[in-house]
Specification:
The structure holds 2 protein chains of 2 kinds.
Chain A lengths: L3 E7 L3 H12 L4 E6 L6 H7 L3 E4 L6 H13 L6 E4 L8 H13 L4 E5 L10 H17 L12 E4 H6 L9 H11 L4 E5 L6 H6 L5 H10 L2
Helix pairs in contact in A: 1-2
Chain B lengths: L2 H21 L3 H23 L2 H10 L4 H46 L7 H6 L6
Helix pairs in contact in B: 1-4, 3-4
Chain lengths: 221, 130
């Protein structure tokens, strides 16, 4: 557990971030929250809950926050694994344990979380359709074959983290990350995760219109 | 159907401009853009002195009126401007992101010494890090 760093991009999640960090730190002591220019007390709440908080001086986007978190985690020579985790409490630490177990058992460099490998995740029909189309597009344009490309829960080993360079600051970073991993000659797998859509995460979650923005950002790169 | 000629021409130009701007950056692309601008300015002077030149070009490619020709040229120019500006903003954003990230990581290294490896120690040395 000492060799694992949780990277949590943080933007205006004051209400829930302390609980999320505390919950993670019961199992994994190393958590870095990258505060992406929040205007509320998110950074202070995360810091109080025991996370390292790296503060972007201005809002740069979730992709930029992930890359900053990766670079922070790389500064710890003892880090072997990075877990990317959402700040809004929709991911489960128990899923991460299974993903790490799978990575070690099957000698994988990257394990992607997937909502669509089992029936636990309750998503609306339209959301499901858009996510499926996003996966189809990602599979078509990269060398990977995945069932869920836009899940924020991933386990990545040190070697791969050091070779990633996310340049898509905004939402298209998930596809970019998959594309970069697909281009590397490494072993990756998928593990079922339960994404918990609470009223809170639904109210904060990205609008489906973002699918259009992601597509444009990917084409005009 | 003389109008087909201008349609084909414009579509080809639009695709060429977009492809060109998408695929190339660096000295050559910049030089081409500047030469293009120079030509554009020179042609602007010519067309001010001899407005009928547009009519002649228009008839040559089958548009009919010079004003229509100007409009089409403007559409192409505007499109290429939009794409160049977008790409330039992206480059700028990449640099600005790196700057902000460096700042954030350096501040964190001071604030949490030891927690993220030995960043804090390295910072104390003069010229210790990139």
């Amino acid at each position: 557990m000492q060799d694992t760093w949780f990277v949590i991009p943080l933007f205006n999640e004051e209400q829930v971030i302390a609980d999320v960090v505390r919950d993670v730190r019961r199992t994994f002591p190393h958590v870095v929250c990258v505060d992406d220019g929040s205007s509320d007390g998110s950074a202070a709440a995360a810091d109080a809950a025991g996370a390292v908080v790296v503060r972007h001086p201005v809002n740069l986007g979730q992709g930029a926050a992930l890359q900053t978190g990766f670079e922070y985690a790389l500064s710890d020579p003892g880090m072997r694994w990075v877990v990317t985790f959402d700040a809004d409490g929709q991911h489960q630490v128990s899923d991460v344990l299974e993903m790490l177990e799978k990575a070690r058992a099957e000698n994988l460099d990257v394990v992607f979380g997937s909502r669509f490998l089992d029936q636990r995740t309750q998503a609306g029909a339209l959301k499901k359709l858009v996510l499926r189309m996003a996966v189809a597009y990602t599979n078509l344009t990269t060398k990977t074959r995945l069932t869920d490309a836009h899940n924020g829960l991933r386990v990545i080993n040190r070697d791969v983290v050091s070779r990633l360079s996310i340049t898509q600051n905004r939402m298209a970073h998930a596809s970019e990350l998959v594309a970069q991993i697909g281009a590397l000659d490494i072993r990756y797998g998928e593990s079922p995760v339960h994404v918990l859509y609470t009223d809170y995460s639904r109210s904060k979650g990205q609008s489906l219109w973002n699918a259009v923005n992601i597509l444009v950002e990917l084409i005009l790169r | 159907m003389k109008i087909v000629l201008i349609q084909i021409l414009l579509i080809v130009v639009v695709i060429a401009v977009v492809a060109r701007l998408f695929r190339s950056r660096g000295a050559r692309a910049q030089a081409i853009r500047r030469l293009g601008l120079l030509l554009f300015a020179a042609f602007a002077v010519v067309s001010i002195l001899f407005p009928s030149v547009w009519n002649r070009i228009a008839q040559l490619v089958g548009v009919g009126r010079g004003t229509d020709m100007v409009l089409y040229a403007l559409v192409v120019a505007f499109l290429s401007f939009t794409v160049t500006t977008y790409l330039r903003f992206r480059d700028l954003e990449t640099r600005y992101t790196k700057l902000a990230r460096r700042l954030a990581l350096d501040e964190a290294a001071v604030q949490y010494p030891g927690s993220g490896g030995d960043l804090g120690d390295v910072l104390d040395q003069p010229g210790g890090r990139d």
